[in-house]
Design brief:
Length: 309
């Protein structure tokens, strides 16, 4: 598979990430061609606008075709960015939460692989023919932290991957994931944003979008009402404290062990965790594409080991 393109995809509830892109996991289907081709996937005579709105929660991502369609869009974006051509063999690298890894691994691989048959589709203004030749799956969050050698040398480290719907927790003992204390908490950023929006409605009678709230959390959106900004930051602080307590209640003590925070919510932790919280040693990785990059890195390492052997 020397000519195969390696592409890592992080299939999040709120966003789909590759090495170079992050876009909303929303997907809207149309029978007829939309007025623009931007962000439009065409497959089997049907059109899908990618990155629009919010995807309904699917605990089993193989139930519908949505995540497969989002995968095709992600592949097209990466092929175009890498100038790899519209016809390509792809080795797909992806992940699953460690809590469901053993249960869902086989089903998710088959869902993505589609028997290794080529699929032809259009994305935006280009036609693609893609053959997914192989699918490698890894524990979500694990690949992203392997580069953090200064913390991985610790005897025990907590990893908290803060996604859209869930916060996936694991503990590494001597760099090896320990399955026993792994948890998946339904306390992701969607819950945080929805709670903030509700508090603003109650207090100010304003209906703010998730995009507006996120922009305030990132230090942007100067046009937003100052009272609304105060509520946003207050509630974000409350969410952070609630999350830290929930992690501790799960049997992982962030005050006793170093903790790596990553995922879409990591930037929030950077702004709302302070020295007064008394965390043992927090490391906050706010690159949302880090899981996808980690998947590609792991496949490369495994390929080199296999070649050497």
């Amino acid at each position: 598979m020397s000519n195969t393109v390696m592409i890592g995809v992080d299939h999040g509830y709120a966003a789909t990430k590759t090495t170079h892109f992050s876009f909303s996991t929303g997907l809207v289907g149309y029978e007829h061609e939309p007025y623009t081709r931007k962000d439009v996937l065409e497959l089997d005579g049907r059109y899908y606008v990618v990155g629009t709105g919010r995807q309904p929660l699917q605990k089993d991502k193989t139930v519908t075709e949505d995540y497969y369609l989002l995968t095709l869009a992600a592949i097209a974006k990466e092929l175009e960015h890498r100038q790899a051509g519209p016809t390509a063999a792809v080795h797909l690298a992806a992940g699953l939460p460690l809590t469901s890894f053993g249960r869902d691994k086989k089903k998710f691989r088959e869902y993505l692989l589609r028997d290794g048959k080529p699929v032809s589709f259009h994305y935006e203004w280009a036609a693609y023919t893609v053959t997914i030749e192989a699918v490698s799956l890894f524990p979500q969050g694990y690949a992203a932290v392997l580069t953090q050698t200064e913390l991985l040398d610790e005897p025990s480290v907590i990893v908290a991957d803060i996604g859209g719907w869930t916060v996936d927790l694991m503990r590494l003992d001597g760099r090896i994931p320990n399955a026993a204390p792994c948890r998946s908490l339904e306390l992701g950023m969607i819950r945080c944003l929805d709670e903030i929006a509700e508090q603003i409605r109650r207090s100010l009678g304003l209906s703010m979008t998730a995009a507006q709230i996120e922009s305030v959390l990132c230090g942007e959106a100067n046009s937003v009402d100052n009272n609304a900004k105060a509520i946003i930051h207050r509630e974000a602080g409350a969410y952070t404290r609630r999350l830290l307590s929930a992690i501790a209640e799960s049997g992982l003590d962030v005050w006793a062990m170093p903790t790596i925070f990553l995922g879409g919510g990591a930037a929030l932790m950077k702004r709302h965790v302070s020295a007064t919280d008394g965390l043992c040693q927090p490391l906050i990785l706010d690159d949302v594409c880090l899981n996808a990059k980690g998947y590609e890195r792991l496949v490369g390492q495994l390929s080199r080991v296999s070649g050497d052997g």
